[in-house]
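Journal club side-thread
Mid-discussion, someone asked how the predicted structure for our own chain would compare to the paper's figures. Pasting it here so we can look after the session.
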Amino acid sequence: QVAIAIEEVSRCHLRFTFRHRSSQESRDRSERAFGVGFVKLMNADGTTLQDGKHNLIVYKGDNKKMEDAKSYLTLPCTKTEMEEKEAPSGKNLHALGSFTPTKDSTKDSFQIATVICSTKLTQNVDLLGLLNWRSNSHNIAHNLRKLMEVEGGEIVKFLPDTLDALFNIMMEMSENETYDFLVFDALVFIISLIGDIKFQHFNAVLETYIYKHFSATLAY
């Protein structure tokens, strides 16, 4: 379990270093790493690393540079990312980083499984778009429609923030009736969601929001 402050997540990555084990503890301490794998915690679109399994590339080579983050962070971290970047040869990879991997040095992978425990970091790009609607105001209608396709478990984790976003859109964009109807549909969708037996324990969260946090006077 790794605890990371919310403001640090976008700048952080996890690194896995591989060393030979020796029967002598003193030798272990001096043993140079022969491989390194890493994974970024934040995707380029601002969403958080997806829960599940990730096949990390193990970059191998007797090179002290591999322990310097600057030398590998520009390289693909997973097999999927490597395929997307279409870098089948070591030559192409060399242009991406300063730690000179070759095709043979990247043939192995290391599988990890991750679960993000947070009520502030979402793995869904459509929900993120709604929560950050002020910085992406031309997409409000799109994000309101897409909200109703987001998996229920992700929405209930962000229930107060999602409701705040909906009511703020209604109040701050009151001159556009299109948003009123979309916000209304979204609210009906969320209330129906919490009426589902699977999410009924979030009723208390909704009630607390209504009685203690709701303050959208124009939407009242």
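Post-session note: The chain has two domains: 6-114, 125-214.
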